[in-house]
Every structure is written in structure tokens, then in C-alpha cells.
Request: fold
Amino acid sequence: MSTAPVKELDRVVIRFAGDSGDGMQLTGNRFTDATAILGNDLSTLPNFPAEIRAPVGTLAGVSSFQVHFSDHDILTPGDAPNVLVAMNPAGLKANVKELVHGGILIVNSDAFTQGNFDKAGYATDPLEDGSLEGFTVYKIPMSALTAGAVKDMGLGKKQVDQSKNMFALGVMTWLFHRPIEPTLDFISKKFAKKPEVAAANIAVYKAGFNFGETAEMFVSSYRVKPAKMPPGRYRNVTGNQALAWGLIAASVQAKLPLFLGSYPITPASDILHTLSNYKHFGIRTFQAEDEIAAIGSVVGAAFAGHIGVTTTSGPGVDLKAETIGLGVSLELPMLIVDVQRGGPSTGLPTKTEQSDLLLAMFGRHGEAPVPIVAAYAPAQCFHAAIEAVRIAIKYRTPVFLLTDGFLANGSEPWLIPTVDSLPDISTTFATEPNHEGEFWPFLRDPETLARPWAIPGTPGLEHRVGGLEKADGTGNISYDPDNHEKMTHLRAAKIAGIAKDIPLAEVDDPDGADLLVVGWGSTWGTIGAGVRRVRKNGRKVARLHLMHLNPFPLNVGEILSRYTKILVPEMNMGQFSKMLRYEFLVDAKSLSKVKGLPFLAADIEAKIMEMLDE
Amino acid sequence: MSTAPVKELDRVVIRFAGDSGDGMQLTGNRFTDATAILGNDLSTLPNFPAEIRAPVGTLAGVSSFQVHFSDHDILTPGDAPNVLVAMNPAGLKANVKELVHGGILIVNSDAFTQGNFDKAGYATDPLEDGSLEGFTVYKIPMSALTAGAVKDMGLGKKQVDQSKNMFALGVMTWLFHRPIEPTLDFISKKFAKKPEVAAANIAVYKAGFNFGETAEMFVSSYRVKPAKMPPGRYRNVTGNQALAWGLIAASVQAKLPLFLGSYPITPASDILHTLSNYKHFGIRTFQAEDEIAAIGSVVGAAFAGHIGVTTTSGPGVDLKAETIGLGVSLELPMLIVDVQRGGPSTGLPTKTEQSDLLLAMFGRHGEAPVPIVAAYAPAQCFHAAIEAVRIAIKYRTPVFLLTDGFLANGSEPWLIPTVDSLPDISTTFATEPNHEGEFWPFLRDPETLARPWAIPGTPGLEHRVGGLEKADGTGNISYDPDNHEKMTHLRAAKIAGIAKDIPLAEVDDPDGADLLVVGWGSTWGTIGAGVRRVRKNGRKVARLHLMHLNPFPLNVGEILSRYTKILVPEMNMGQFSKMLRYEFLVDAKSLSKVKGLPFLAADIEAKIMEMLDE
Amino acid sequence: MSEGNGSAVAVEVTRKDFVSDQEVRWCPGCGDYAILAAVQSLMPELGIKRENIVFVSGIGCSSRFPYYMNTYGVHSIHGRAPAVASGIAMARPDLDVWVVTGDGDGLSIGGNHMIHALRRNFNLKILLFNNQIYGLTKGQYSPTSEVGKVTYSTPLGSLDYPFNPVSLALGAEASFVARAVDMDRKYLLDILRPAAEHKGSAFIEIYQNCNVYNDGAFDLLTQKGGKANYQIRLVHGEKILFGAEKELGIIFDDGEAKIVNVADVGIEKIATHDMHREDPSLAFALSRLAHGPSSPTPMGIFRSVVRPAYDDAMKDQMDAALAKSGAGDLEKLLFGGETWEVPAAT
Amino acid sequence: MSEGNGSAVAVEVTRKDFVSDQEVRWCPGCGDYAILAAVQSLMPELGIKRENIVFVSGIGCSSRFPYYMNTYGVHSIHGRAPAVASGIAMARPDLDVWVVTGDGDGLSIGGNHMIHALRRNFNLKILLFNNQIYGLTKGQYSPTSEVGKVTYSTPLGSLDYPFNPVSLALGAEASFVARAVDMDRKYLLDILRPAAEHKGSAFIEIYQNCNVYNDGAFDLLTQKGGKANYQIRLVHGEKILFGAEKELGIIFDDGEAKIVNVADVGIEKIATHDMHREDPSLAFALSRLAHGPSSPTPMGIFRSVVRPAYDDAMKDQMDAALAKSGAGDLEKLLFGGETWEVPAAT
Ligand SMILES: Cc1ncc(C[n+]2csc(CCOP(=O)(O)OP(=O)(O)O)c2C)c(N)n1
Ligand SMILES: Cc1ncc(C[n+]2csc(CCOP(=O)(O)OP(=O)(O)O)c2C)c(N)n1
Ligand code: SF4
Ligand code: SF4
Ligand SMILES: [Mg+2]
Ligand SMILES: [Mg+2]
Reply:
């Protein structure tokens, strides 16, 4: 049994790094799930190349997974890792520059061969050349130990090699006192049909764990106490999963079937994958031939009375533009989910960015306004999805729901809401003529300006809708100039009017600051962490984070007017700041980061301090 | 011979109105061409339904053509007609409300039948019920007179009916002292292969002319002297024609072949049609299967060393979004011409609007900036096209050229430029390695930031380009975070830097006004006319009209800062005013018109006066 | 209860019930009128309630069709009708969904949705109005125009080799493929009727005269004597014969179909049409007898086979999932799997 | 003049000259490697200068191909490779243009550009890497996946009836249509060589193993004995036979192709392959012998006929216009037609 002492830590950032074939995402996810169950607060950041399996051993092929966990509430996946697990030289080289000074480095020493040095571009062996001084380095011959653990189990060389990540996971499980059961369960389930593979993986995992306990290599092991979190039942979720479940919940709460028409694209595909499993919730998923067909089918489903949803990323949004415009013209409820990634063009498909905001606002010909809802944390994608569907249904309009690669793949513990606590977002279909014995499909509700939703199968309400301009009321084709202007204003007023139906914005300003940081989307956690640090420095700063980006809550202008300095951090070139500027004529300064990676809390802190000192 | 006295007028607005099958567009165009040759200044406004031949006799089927001509320079097709030619009751009903008080009304009395009253929704015969008091009404049985003119020429009833517009044209030719030769020539050429049809049309045309001269019906005829215009050779052109010719000129001046990949769409198709006739200029025109293929072929042609151009309208721009983003990423020269029409969706396809500006700015995922050039008058489309191609070639970038339905179909006299006066916009292809014996496709010109254009066929410069992020310099695929940020900034800086390479904006402010009217695109003429009127009222107003919308000329901010009031008239809901607001933080007020029709000078005048009096 | 509400009178449904109140806005003489009349007259025969019928179209002259049908309808955007219609079909298997499209709408910009709809075999009746021209945009050539066509966009003649829509549909695995012509209402109805009853996608190419931009394109088939001499009418189970005296016929020879004089080969050699043939090769070979209506052209139903419709299969899959897992329970979903409890602080 | 510049040495071009300096980033074991090697080894044979060759692709694992060829290349966007390539072909008839695409890229999102490119018959060599899966997006089913395929997006099995890419290409009027498999380099080259020489569009479906997401999809054909027993290799002018002892063969019977025991019908009844047949019916019938590689599958060149290529016809039309009207004169254009002079004020 290990004699290593146990140290208590309040938070740790661990990064797993290796080849894209090394299973780093799976390792990270397993570690995270065990951590979640232990009751730590946590936040994760996966990072992987666009190729399925980029060349083995090269920098281009490095895949990593960072998890930040703590005994208190945290907001980000952490700026810099305290612990780096490097499965090969490339994984080391690509990540070691971010490891904190004095941090722990665990390497698979078997992978530190001349061939791998060459591939990674190391002139000398980093384990020997002194370049890693300043870190606590643990060299573990994981490949050999893995092979030893499954020696008699009849696995092929490739299979053995592919399970060495389980060894690393075992070591880390021991080192950080994580429970082993969840991982054992997971392996058994995953390989239920291949018991020999399950057995081998379990053997390797346990070998890793036992290695930690028995090898007397580690000077201490570490414990991070559960975080004091609001009471209730929790689970760990990624943004994509929360979003998919939010859509299911929206369908239940609207009492309407959900139709998903989608075309696979990174990083949105998982929403399609997840929803495909819930047919018993009455959810139809359709993988179309392209993005245009996907949203075309959504228009049809919406006309037919379903909640039509399409999920995609930037390139797909481009393609859907014309059909979204049709949706605006037909005034049918539907949802466009854009999981943003690095652009322009194919760009950085597996990396995160917030650069589709103005596309969502303006990316259709003609005057075609649509509401925009932006999720701001992985678990919060659940509620954002329900809210977006609520608006779509109530106002009979396409709605954009923006998330991004960081939210989509990142995870955090989620206090599961009870179904009772979810809003009723149901609606009524038209069943009767609404105008002197006739049915007028464009006779609006005077309050919401929404038009009636009369679905096929309803006798007496047969009607035709189309993309040509329609006469106010009857909906018949109309080329009348005044009518066109009227309809254009009505469509705009309907969307603008949603402002009355969303909560006022709440500014976080305990100290009466002069500087306001305004954000949207996934920067929520990092801005929060940055603001905390500034306040810890004893300086005043206020923050505002918006979920409704079109229309804005009614009080945003008033809030902005209270501050002399406004800072808008965004993972783009300043798109949201443009919106604040044209809407409120305030001198919103943009803090831009376009690296395919989230901000660090330090980035935000530094910029705030700079502006405070100006 | 007519004894009617001749009156001199300084300007006249005539509107021809009838069924879409009545040939009103042709009649208007013929009258216009004869007017142009006479040396009047002029401006035209065609207006027709989206259906090919909307139902005969109904309001929906009315097609009209307005021409404004004068002995001085004019800027607009005229707010209200002085003369209305109505070929049927529907044509009368749809247009008479705009005829000036005391105006002349010429009707085909044969069409004023009970059946046609019913179709047009007239309860009583408007020619008899006194509702036309206040106008000078001429009732001419045109159908009968037409039939008489061709009695022995063996035409079918339908053919006879279809030539009655020639009778109206003949009458108007006489009434306004237009030359008859151009129309005789035109008819002979048009029906060269059907001499009997030509003869009949000529007979009818002459019959109309002679009717005017001999019928002693008209109290006077009218003459409008030639306008005092700058000396030189003129021709009458529509915006689409001028644009097509501008592209030909750009090809000649760039010494590069032009490749047009397009898909038909109203109101852009005529550019494709026109260019299809100039194969001997080395111009390739390709009607693709859709807009995406059209611009796809343009990317290919640009890669291969041609000037790639695609022409479309709003719905087509939507579809091209993703490929424009590819063009931004590949940094290849290409031109996207958007002839804007009424939106959203199919909207009002034959009407005008300026509602694609923010689409051009932001309608692509990721940070994908492109320059925008906006033409402002029909003939000026020629120069706008050359300028847009110049920027595309010099900066290796997709460029948007915005026009609209009003510019596209409207016409005006054009002082033809000599070829010598056109700019040299040629470029050089890369022919040699540019970096230590290698060819780096993304090694930029330090001044323009443009990358080298190395076309296939050049030995030694073989290279691959793609939509994934590229390493600065080499252009190899790169997922490096810092490189992505650098490239994003470089792409933005390249476009922003064009500002140094375009003329400073010139403000028209003779009197030192407080109010500045800022416009773009086809509102140029009307804003000019409105401003003139205000100044005639003795009030001060300044104006600025921009052709370069991204980037802006360097001095725009400075100009705006000089005025306390800024008015931005646009045929949309305030898109350009948003751009001025976010860019310069000025309180630009929007004057919006979204009726599918151009502003009237009176609209502009009224709003300026209102703001001046505020 | 007031009088007159009590007794349910069986009202006979007629063509008029399917005529909407919208003014028809095609050019006088356009072939679209005849097709509209035929479809309106077919509707009462089908015994499907008006409210359960949806017509979906794209953009083009032909695509104005839904406005004139007193049913539910969507006039969508250019080329996307099959996609929109597929969404309706999947969402609502209880509805009867028709697609009306043109040669430009359905084969040019919309070609991809068309071929995918056909392979998936959605329950859609697809009427492709082929006038071999772009009508609405005023006369450019289309993917079915003959090579060398002079139009506004091709003043020196088009260069494109056209699609044969029937061959394309067969290559795309269509389960029902037919061809008709606007002018012959009776024959059109003979084809529309089985199409309406077909489970899955029914693709019907309808030759339609655009008298403004491509007048007379189908004269060879519709002129006097054209029906007998230039329409090779396919009748299931019957010998494929045509000509005034049925003196011409079709044989299959070495992998292709050929026109022969019956007298030369003998009637027994003449092929018998088999529209239910699983293998589409026979239908495909027949489709190659003419490439455009410029020679004797096969008409009628080339193929009609049974294959599961996508939307039906989707419904079955959903029903099976429901049967297996029971109706979804949101509470169970959210609280199932790996969760943990954070106790209230004490 | 310095030494060494004077003498032109005839350098032998080899496969290596076509290998770019970019690291190949496919998964180890991916079938794409074999195809890349084959194409690189074909290039020197063609005698076309490297700088006159362009490879164009869309998005997908397969679409990374151009990066690895030391020629000109464009890695475009998903589905649009044929469109981009067509622009290059039209602009520059002097170039040799290749398209590399996948079953998702070329048949799902890019299906329309594909069928239009084929009917227009651009001078393009189109290599469709069919692995019956979406590789790059990590394993969703594709339009060529078999019905019932369990993937991430179809956990209960896919419902789509797949395309037969060869049938689709034939239905779209393709002038050259072939099928090969990644593993057999020699046979692949036997097909690529005539494809490279074909005037117009050459469509080659290449079965490609994705060992990560769809491993073994083509095992039936590539396993031991598979070549003989499950590949029906089409050879122009030869009887269509297969099986270890060539004991099986193909006959045409009543409009379709059938597999028979040669012994049962006699060798003289066995069909002779004719890839140059004008009528595509024969090729189509052969394509129907298998629907996916789950039974004996015809391989080789189904069709190779001569039809004018669009880009060649475009060039002819331009040359003719030039010959007729002379080189365009801008001054004449601008000042021609109806113009008038405004004299300088005196
Ligand atoms: C995205 C888009 N591109 C182009 C158009 C213009 N457009 C409208 S209809 C049409 C073609 C019509 O041809 P077809 O489908 O054959 O119908 P027809 O008018 O002949 O019945 C085109 C190109 C459009 N409305 N939308
Ligand atoms: C517009 C757009 N939609 C979706 C994607 C995502 N995507 C990339 S490749 C691909 C499919 C790849 O399948 P296939 O063409 O068969 O190529 P493979 O990877 O199997 O070689 C998809 C859906 C994209 N890049 N762009
Ligand atoms: S243009 Fe042709 S297709 Fe269109 S309505 Fe007129 S006749 Fe019919
Ligand atoms: S995912 Fe499949 S197709 Fe893609 S590189 Fe890997 S093995 Fe090849
Ligand atoms: Mg048509
Ligand atoms: Mg694939």
C-alpha cells in the first residue's frame, strides 16, 4: 500500500495530451465523469485536430482534454494546467509551454524514442536535456506496463497499444482519489458485446491504479473536496447533450412533436446523434442530403404542425440563409441551432469561435429579422433551447440559437431541474375561421402580432402560403407598394415586440463601477472569472451578460448609459460591440480573440485592469 | 396638316400603362430612345408584375413605363406624370391617382367596355362618370384604328390587337415631336425575318402619327428642346446594359479574359443575356444549374486566371454565401453583382429595394470581410463595374457590386467615355518562386497585403489552396491558434487598407449647412432632386453620396463630424444608417421607404424640411 | 338546437371544391391550365378530404399551381419543393402530399432534392411540368432544352446535352416513373390516377407547352396524327406498338430497346411492357427510345414497383421504439444515468 | 552565360515528382493511401506536365487528396468540387482537371453538380471515393450505405434506399462510367488510364475501405477468392464471365441482365460487353446486377462513348464568334449603335 501522504487542494487543472489515436478525449471524459460524481465543480475543454487520425507522433496529430475541478464553484476550464499527462513527445511539446511553473508532468516514457522526437521536432530527448527542470516529472513506461497487464489475454499489438490510455487513467484515478466504479461500469457497458476487450481494458485500468498505489513513485497523492454547490441532483453534461435534452424538454412542454432535419457537421453533429436515440419521445430525426434540404424539411414539418429544428455550424448556416428567409416570410415557428466554429470558410472546424453573430442578424436578403438567443454555459444550453423554442412557437418565427464549439464539447455539473419547474410553452392551432366566416392566415394576434397556425388536416382552414409578399390579413399575393411597407414593418415590429416578453437584463455591479464588461455566449464563465480576479485586486468592475441578442431586453440601453467605459470581449473581431454601438450609440470597446480557443481569465483581467488604469 | 399650336415645355413626365401583354415596356423604350436621340436629358422607371402575363384587364396585370425628359439636366424619372397613356381601364385605375392635376390623359376608348370595368373594379364608366374632371382627356378608339390600318395585310385578330401599342406610340411621337426614323429602323430590324409583321407594325405606327397630325383632336402639340449637356457622344443605356459593358471594358483594361458564371434571376438576368453576345471579346458566359454552381465555376475560373464574375439578386446571394467565404479564404479576385429586389424571400421580384447591404457586409460565417461598391445611376454602373473589378484584381478578393431593380431597368443618356480615359487595371501573375527558391502562395505584397496570383500552367509554382486556415506565408494548412488570429487580422487589414486606394469622399455643401443627407446607390438622383428643391426653398442642406461602402473613404468620419444632423434615406429599414452609427458613433437618422418603388423627390424634400424645422 | 344543424347531408364533392378563389395568372394559352383542370378534376375521385391534401411547389410559372388549388399549399423557394414536401410527409403520414415543379425548378436548381426524394421514396406525387424552358424568368434554356437552343442566354445556341427526366429518375431509383402531355386530359388522368394511388414517390414528367417562350415544343406528339405516330404508349402487359396501323413496335435486343417494323420481325418478337418489373433496366431501355420529343416518344407508366416509403419506414421505426421503450418520460430521462446528489447544507 | 544553363537534359518524370511536401493525414490503414499511390504512379505515364494538372476536391477525408499531389490544386467546400472544376475546365481548356470526391461530398450535398457535370460532359476526371460512410464527420451513413446501417445518426438503422452510383451516372448521361476498388492497384490503373484519356467527363466509382468507421465494407470483393467469385469484370468485346472457373456469366433477357450458369445456357448466349455502345441501356442493365458490394458486382468500364465536351464546344463557339466578328473592339462597341452627338457650346 502506498505510503505517500495525501495533500488537500482546492482546485486542480489537468490536461491529458497525446496522439489523436491515443483516446485522450475518452480518457478526459472518464476522468471528468468520476470527478463529477465525487461532487466537485468542474469545467472541461476538449481540443482536437480536424483530421480523424492525424499523423501519429506529429504536432498536427495532438489531441488534448483539459479538466478543471474544485471544491468551490468555478467558471472556466482553467487558464493553465497544474498537471500535464503526455502520452508522447508531440503531446509534450504542444502543451508543456502552458504547464504552470512547478507543475506535475506525467509521461509515457516508452514513447520517448528517437523516431518520435523526429516527428515532434525535438532535437534532443526532452526528458534528458534538462529542458523540463522546474516541473516534477514522472516517467512511466506505460506501453510496457500495459502490455504486461494483458499479456495472457490474447490481444493484438494494436489493441494493446490502444488501451494504454486506460493505464494513464488508472494512474490519475489513484493520484487524485477518484472513484473507480464509474469507469469500470462504463467499460463493461461499452464493450458488452466484446467481453474480452472489456476485461483487457479493466485489467489495464486497474494496473494503472495499482501502479500508483504500489510503485512508490509519487511523493504525494491529492484530494479535492466536493464543492459546496446548491443542493439537488446533479449530472455532468456537455453543451451539445444539454441542448439536445432541452429540445426534448421543449417538445414535451409544448405538447408538440419535434422534427429535426439536419446534416452532419462538426461540432454540431452530436445533437443529431443524441436526438436520434429518442424516437420514443415522438422525435423524428432526418439526416438530409444537405443543409438546404434539412431546413427545407423543417419548413414542411413546421407547416404541418411540428416544432421544426435544424442544427448546424457556420457553413451550414450560409446554405440555409435563403430558406430561413422563407421561414420569415411564411411566419412559421422553427429553430436554427448554430454551433459556431472557426471561420471563414472551412476554417478551423474543430475549434471554437463566436463569429456568426452578425450572420445570424443579417445573413438573408431583404428585411428578414429573426430573434437570436445565445447559450452561455454547457448546462445552460438546456434552458436556452427551451427559451428559443418558446419564442419560435409564440411568435411564429424562425429563431437562431447560438452556441459554439467550446460550449458544445465542454462539460460541467448540472443541477437537474424538475420537470415541474419547466415553463409551459404550449400553443393552440387555429381551428375556426377568423374573419367573417373565412380563414385569413395573416390576421395577427393584436398583442404578439403572431399569425394563426392552421395545420393541414383542419377542415375549412385550407390556405396557401408562399414567399411572395402577402396582403396583410388575407395572405394573398400582393404587389401593392403600401402593403409591402406595412408588412415589412409588421414583421419587424413582431420581432422587436418580443422585448416585452423576456426578462430585463441584470447587471452584476456590487460596488458601483465605472467600467462595464458586456458579453454574450460562451465567454460567460471566463468573463466571470476575470471579473472576480479584478474585484479580488480590490478594483471595481460591473458585468452584464446577455442571452437575448435580438431583440435586446428593454433596459439594456439604460444600463449601458450608466457606465463611462464599456468593454466587450468576444471571440471574433467585434461583432457584438458593433450591435451595441449602432443600437445605443455607446463607445463599446472590443476585446477580440480569434484563436480558436476560449479566452483565459487572465486575458479578461488584464484588459479590465488596463482600461481601469487608463 | 395639323393646325394645333406647338407649346414649348422644359420638362415632361409621361407614363404608358396597360396590360402586361400590351407591350408597354417596348412602347416606353421606343419613346425613350427617340427622346434620347433628340438630345433631351431623361430618366426612366419601368414597373411590371412578376407574372409573365398576369390576367388580362385586371389591376394585377398592369404594366407601366414612365419617362421623364427635359431641356436641362434631371436626376429622377419624375414624381408624378404630366401625361398618362392608358390602354385599358385597369391601366387607368392603377395610375390615374398619380397624374398631376390638369394633366393629359390619353385612353384607348375601345377598351372601355363593361367587361373591362368589371375586371378593373370600376362600378361605372370612368370616362363618363365625371371622375376624370380636372384632366384633359383624349379618347381614341385605338383598337379600331389599328385594325383599320392593317385591314388588308392578312394579320390575325391577336396580332392586330398586339400592335395597338404602336398606334399609341405613333400618337405620342407626333404629340411630342419625336423623330420617327429610329422606331421605323427598330421595327424593320426586329422583324427582319417576318417582313409582313414589320410592315404591319410600321403601318400602325404611322397611322398613330398621322392620326395625331390630322385628327384635330389635340389642342396643341409639345416640344422639349435638347438639354444643355456636356459635349460629346451620347447613347441611352439601362443600368444592366451599362454594367455588362463595364465588365467588358474591365476585361479589356485588365487584359484578362472575363468568365461569367450565372443563373437567371429577375432583375439580373439581362446582364447574362447581354454578355452572352460578346464572345468575340473573349467573354465566356455559363448558365449554371444554380447559383452555387455559378459562383463555384467562378472560383475555378479565378484560380485559372480569369476575371470571375457572377450576377444575381438577393435569393442568389444567400445561396452564394458559403462560396464567397471560400473566395475570401482563397484570396482570389472575383465579383459578385447583386441587383437588389424587394425581399424578404421571393418578395417582390420585379420591384426595387436596397435591402441587401448588410447581407453583403456580413452574410457569411466567420470573419470574412469583402469590399462593397455600390453603383448610383444607370449609366454609372459602367464605371462602378470597372472600379469593382479593379479592386478585386488588385487585392485578390471577392468584391460585391450592388445595384438594384431601379438602376437595372431604368435608363438615362450616357456621355460615352473614350477607351483612353479608362483606367489601366491590369495585374501581373506570379511566374517565379518568391521565397528562397520556393513558391509561397500566401506571401503578401507588403503594401496592398495582396497575395501572389499564380495560375496553373506556370511551371515551378504548383501549389494547393483550400478553405482550411492557412499558415501565413506558406499557405499550408495550419491549426495554430496564433496563426489563425494573425491571418484573420491580415485579411481584415487588407480590405481596410483599400481605403487608401479610393478617392476621398466629396461633400456637396455650397452654403455651409447643419444637416447632411447621406446616401448610397440608386437614391442618388432622387436625393439630388430633393436637395435641389430644398435649396430652391432657400434653405441650406449638404449631401454626401458614397460609392465605396466597405471600406469607407478615409475622410467620411471627419465629414460626418461637421454636421449636427444626419439623414440617411434608404429603400430599406435603415441598414446603411446602422453602418454609419457603429463605425462613427453619429446619430444618423434613417428615412426608410420599403415600397418596391424609388423615393420621390418630394419625400426627400419633405423630410429634410421637417428636420430643418425641428 | 337550431334547425338545419341536425341532419348530416352527404354532399357530393366536385371539381369545383378544389378550385381556390385566386385568379389564375398564367398567360392565355399556357399548357399549365390544362394540367390544373385535370388535377382539379382528379381530386374528387381520390376520396381524400380537401383538408388532408397539400400541394407544394418551388418557383416558376408552374410553381404557382398551389395557389389555385383549394387545399393546403406551400409556394416555397426555387428548387426546394421536394425538401419542403418531404418534411410534411415525414411529420404527417396522414396527409396526401403533391409536388408541382418545373424543368428548371425540379431538374436544374432542385435536381439534388429530386433524386434524393426519389431514392428515399417519400410518399410524394411529383408533377414535373416540362416546357423545356425557363418561363418565369422570360425564356432561358433549361436542362431539358435540346442542344443548340437559341434563347436570351444562349444567342448562339445552347451547348448542354439535356437530361432525359425519365432516365434520370430511373437512375435515381424511382419506384414510379411516368410521362404524359398537357393536351390530352384523358390520358393524363389515366396516369395521374395510379400515380395518386402509388405508395412512395411517383414521378410524372408532363410535357407542357409554354406558348410564349417555347411554343410548339411538343407539336410532334400533339399534332394531328401525332398521338398514333409519335407517341409510343406503354400499357402494362401489352405489346408495345404504335403507328397509325400499329405497324411499328419495340423489341429488346442485346441490352437495348429498338423500334422495328412489326412486319419485319413478327408480332411475337415484340416486347410486352412490364411496369412492375423489379429491375428498372427494362424501363430505362424504353426511356432511351427518344431523347426529347423530336422522334417517336414513349409515354405512359415506365415503372411502378413497390418499395418501402421512407416516411412509412420512419413511422414504423418510431412505433417500434415506442413499443420497446414506452412513451418517453422526461423526468426519467433527466434523472436517469450517472447522477449524484448534493445534500442540503445542514 | 554560365555553365549548366546551356544544356537541356531530358529529365525522366517519376511518381516522386507528383508527391507534394505535405504530410499525408489519413488514418493508418485507410484505403485512400492506395488510391493516392495509384494516381501518383499514373501521372508520369500521361506525359502531361505537372503544372498543367489541377486536382479539385470538396470536403471529406478523401477530399484532402489534392494537398498530396504536387500539381495545382483546390480543396474547395463540401459538394462543390465539380462546379469549381468546371470553371477551371471552361476557362482553361489547356489544363488537365481532376475531381476527387467522396460518397457524401459527391452524391449527397454535391449530387446536383455531379449529375449536371456529367450531362454537360466537361473535360473532368472524377474519382468518387465510395466508402459508404461519412469519414471526416466521424461516421454517419451516406447515400451509398446499405439500408439498415447502424451509425451515430441512425442508431436504429438507416432507412434510405441507397444510390447505385453507376446507375445514377448513366441516368445522368455520363459518357464514361467505371468502377474499381482501392486494393487492386493494377486494375485501378487499368481503369484510370482510359479515363485519363477520355474526352469529356469520366466518372469512376472507387470502392474505398474506411477502416475506422466502416471497416470491411468491400471484403466480399477483396477477400481471398473475391476477385474471381464476386467481381464481374467487364472487358470490352469479351464475354462477361466470372467465377473461379468462369463458370458464371451474364445474359440479356427481356430487357434486363441476369447471372446464369454458363453450362445452363451455353457460352454463345453469354453477352459480350460493349462499352462503346451509344445507347446506355446495356451499361445500365449491367449496373443493376448488384446494388452495393454484397453480391457479385460488376467492375470495370461500363460505358465509354464519344460526345462533345461542353468546354470544347464552348471554345468552338468562341472561336467561331471570333472568326465571324473579329476580335472585340471596345471603342466600336461603346460608340456603335444608336448614339448622338451633343456639340460643344459655342
Ligand atoms: C434562388 C433563385 N434563383 C433564381 C430564381 C429565378 N427563377 C425563378 S423561376 C426560375 C426558372 C423557372 O423555370 P421552370 O422551373 O422550368 O418553371 P417554368 O416557369 O418554366 O414553369 C428561375 C431561374 C429564383 N426565384 N430563386
Ligand atoms: C456545408 C458543409 N456541410 C457539412 C460539412 C461537414 N462534412 C465534412 S465532410 C462531410 C462528409 C464526408 O463524407 P464523404 O464525402 O463520404 O467523405 P469521406 O470523409 O468519407 O472521405 C461532412 C458532412 C461541411 N464541411 N460543410
Ligand atoms: S411564360 Fe410560358 S409557362 Fe409561363 S405562364 Fe406564360 S405560357 Fe405558361
Ligand atoms: S476516417 Fe476512414 S476514410 Fe477517413 S481517413 Fe480515417 S480510415 Fe480513411
Ligand atoms: Mg420550365
Ligand atoms: Mg465517404
The two ends of chain C are 66 Å apart (CA to CA). Chain C touches chain B at residues 23-28, 59, 61, 64, 75, 77-79, 108-109, 111, 134-138, 140-141, 143, 152-156, 212 (CB under 8 Å). DSSP finds twelve helices and twelve strands in chain C. Confidence is low (pLDDT under 50) at residues 1-8 of chain C.
